[in-house]
Amino acid sequence: MIDSTLCRHWLARFAAVAVLGAAGSANAADTVVAAAPASAAAREKTLEDLGIQFVGLQLTAESFMIDLRYRVTDPAKSAVLVDQKIRPVLVNERTGDRYYVPQAPKIGSLRQTATPRHPVQTGKVYFMLFANPDRRLQVGEKVTLYAGDAVLKGLVVR
Q1: If you average pLDDT over every residue of the chain, what do you get?
Q2: 16, 68, 131, 146: which has the fewest C-beta neighbours closer than 10 Å?
Q3: What is the DSSP letter of 136?
Q4: Has this prediction a pTM greater than 0.85?
């Protein structure tokens, strides 16, 4: 049996290392530009525009991770959220802090993506885990999700 405290400890350490590792890489700046475009081409989208139903955004793993869950209602429209090439970013609307999906060398990104072998399914709930290494994001704060050219504002952390 695995001790849950030990699991949370290692998950938090993993998230911190993943974020610090991404911050020092050459691709980190490219990821931020690609994920959070500042151009006029980026536009705010509604849940219907993205073909999803918002399930929840909550802190998990002793607040070291941010768990975003959504149900797909239209696979074609929701492709931007499950595309492997797009790196989503959460931005705290109050402070401007950015939160990224950790990318581990052996297990990959901590989010679900679509592949030709496993396409997006209507009605299925998908997740994204974002690192919150300093536990700065708190319950009740509003965040904006940037994924490709899609911008989803006003998501409240539970």
Answers
A1: 80
A2: 16
A3: -
A4: no
